[in-house]
Request: fold
Amino acid sequence: MKLFYIAFLIIIWLNIFLGNEVIHTLTVLITTLYIVNRRKRVKNDRVE
Reply:
């Protein structure tokens, strides 16, 4: 969890200073992947 927040803060920082579309795309992809993984974990916990 801490690693995700650190990476997220770095990406936001880069996005603010560079304003690059590539960084914005990466932010969306990482956020989407995190949400998908979180939902999978919740489903796995319910099954167990």
